[in-house]
Amino acid sequence: MYGVSKISSEQNIMLTTFPGAQYSAQSLADHLNVFARAGIVVDMICQSTPRGSAVDFSFTTSYDNFADVMKALPEAVKANPPLISGGYSKINLFGEEMVTSCGVAARALQALAAENIEIALITTSDLDISLLVRQQDEDAALAALKKAFEV
Question: What is the reported pTM?
Answer without folding.
Answer: 0.93
